[in-house]
Structure formats: C-alpha cells, structure tokens
Amino acid sequence: MKTKIFSSFCLSLFFSLAVGIAASMVAPVNPVVAGTVFFSARTIYLFILKGEQYTGLLLAGVNKEIWIEALKENFYSQYPWLDNVDDWSEWVEFNTINFAAVGADPVILKNNASWPIVAAQRTDTALTVVLDTYDSTTTRVRNVEEIEAAPNKLNSVIKQHKQSLIQAIVTEVLWNYGPATAAAGAVAATGANRGAVIGSQTTVAAQLQLDDLAALQERWDNLEFNRIGRTVVLSPYHVRDLIKQDVSLNKSFVDQTKSAGKEGGVAPISLYGFDIYSVGNTPLYTKSTLAKKAFGAGADNTNDCVASVAFNVNEVMKCMGDTEMFYRPKDNNPEQRSDEVGFQQRFKGVPQRTTNFYQQAIVSNRA
C-alpha cells in the first residue's frame, strides 16, 4: 500500500514536469514554477478534497480495495448451483433492481380458420427489489499492516468473513427459491417413515425415494419444462435417504464435498435429468399443510418438515450489490489498541416470476 502511495507521488511529479514544460512552450512562464503549481493543486485534490478515499492509506496502509476483492473472489465456489443461476448484478442501481416479471405465454393455433386472430395483451408485472443487507460482525486484528504483508493471515481473516456471509446468503436465497405452499408446487416424499430427523421430534417422517426424483422428472417432462438448467438442492437428510438406496451415490457425494472451493469447482451429480447438489439448512415446511415456514422463524420440533428444493437456474435470479469494508485503525482505538474490521454485503436472490414456475419442494411430511 505504501508502494501505491509512492507510485502516485512519482506519477504526479512526472505529470507536473510535463505540464510545466508544455506551459513554457506556449506562454512566458517558468516551467519549474508551472510544474510546482500543478503538482500542488493535484496533491491538494487527491489527498485533501478526496481524503476519504485515502484515509486508510495514510493511517495504517490498509488497502480496502484489496480486501474487498479478496472477499468477492470465487464467492460462489462452494455453491455452484447458485453460481449457475442467472446473474442480474449488472442491473443493480443503488442496491435496488427493477425488472418486469414476464406475463403469460402466447397460445399456439394450429390450422387456424377463424379470423381475425384475437389479440391478447401480455401483462408484465413491474417489480422493484431492494437488496438485503448482510453485515459480518467486527474482527479485531492486532496489526493489519502485518496481515497485508503475510498473505496467509489476510486470507484467514477474509475466509472467515466470506464464509460467514455466503452461508447466511445461501440459506436465505435457497429459502426464497422454494415454493410458498403445496398449491404452488410442494410435493411429498413417498418413502417409508423413518425416525426423528429434526431436533427432539418424537414423530416420524417419510424418506425420499429415488423414484420421487423420477416422478419429478416425469412431471416436468409432461409440463414441457426446459430440460436445460434443472437443479435439485438436497437436504442432508435426503442425501442419506438416497445413499441408503444406492451405495454408489455415497462416493459421488463425498467427491462433490471434497471438490468444494478447489480449482474446477463442484461437479453436479446427475440423476433423472437434474443436477444434484446438497447444502445444510434447506427450507422447512409445516406438517400436513406443506406451507413453507417464514425464513428465520423459530424451530418447531413437532411440526417442521425437512425439504429439498427443485428449480431451473434460468427461472430464478441472484444479484450482488455493494460490498463495503468498515475499518477502525488502532491509532483511533485506545480501548483495544488494535485494528478492527468488518464487512457488509448487499445481495438478493428470488424467482424471476411472481407466480411459481419451475419451482418445487420435495417435503418429508410427518406422520
């Protein structure tokens, strides 16, 4: 960071000299005086009028840009199902995105003999979505300059904040992708009941069957849903159900877990035309009604049902907004005498349409 300041100083000096020489060629002025005036003006602009931009540089040599870029790098590496989702980040303005939910598809007429063909107005729904705000709590670091000089220490701090942020984001986004009610597309797992799976529940819940995925494929095929981008994100409970039926799947899921965050990324497991992944904290549905629980609602060990979510990556969206780093140098922190840092990420992931489309939840209902 100090190198960056020195480079900026040298660049200003070079430009000032060039400006001074150019000025002396068109006017009777001393090139040294002209260059000095230009250098002074540029320095005042950069380091006083734009002082906020360089505050970190002048205090402790902290380059916020480097930290933020490190935070955002390979943000989805452990969650490729989210990486594959349509990215609308380029249309975000002031952490808000405006878009139109597409209206009904046209009706196709074969060998039409009735004229005129009646025109139907396609009604798109204008939507404004404000990105959610995710804040990581502050981490206290004894010497940020040392951390920036030691990549392993910097990576350790960034990794903690990135992992905490992405886990919170992924959980809520997947919750948003799940249909709201049974009428909107929730289906029940059909396997035999098994023992407790959530907290201290005393009832039993249905196991997910491979045939349930086959039935989901059949349903989507009959509805002529797009075959490209079909994705299922499994609850860990459902992963266990499938492995019990086909032991060979165990290696596939283990290999998938091992590849998380590595070069090449996480490869999907292909079953019945779906790209299969697994994460913890999938949406919960309420017993019998199969209504999705509100995100963040307290656990109900009597009525909560685990679920897996199916969707098409081209029918949901994600968008990333501003990434902010909040930094307090130790020079201004006499109480702790240490540097403190935290991050804020704006993000949103929701379906592209107001009515359910290409979204289903496979729910293990309880007896």
For this entry, give a set of tags:
seven-stranded mixed sheet; five-stranded mixed sheet; 16 strands; 23% strand
Structure write-up:
37% of the residues lie in helices and 23% in strands. The strands form 4 sheets. Strands 6, 9, 10, 11, 12, 13 and 16 form a 7-stranded mixed β-sheet that branches. It is built from 10 helices and 16 strands. About 4% of the residues have low confidence. Strand 10 and strand 11 form a beta hairpin. It is an alpha+beta fold and 367 residues long.
Strand content: 15-25%
Count of DSSP strands:
16
Structural class: alpha+beta
The number of helices is 10
Overall residue-averaged pLDDT value? 79
For the termini, the CA-CA separation is 62 Å
Rg: 28 Å
Shape: globular
- Series of secondary-structure elements, N-terminal to C-terminal: HHHHHEEEEEHHEEEHEHHEEEEEEE
Low-confidence stretches: 48-60
Q: Main β-sheet: number of strands, strand sense, barrel status?
A: 7 strands, mixed
Helix content: 25-40%
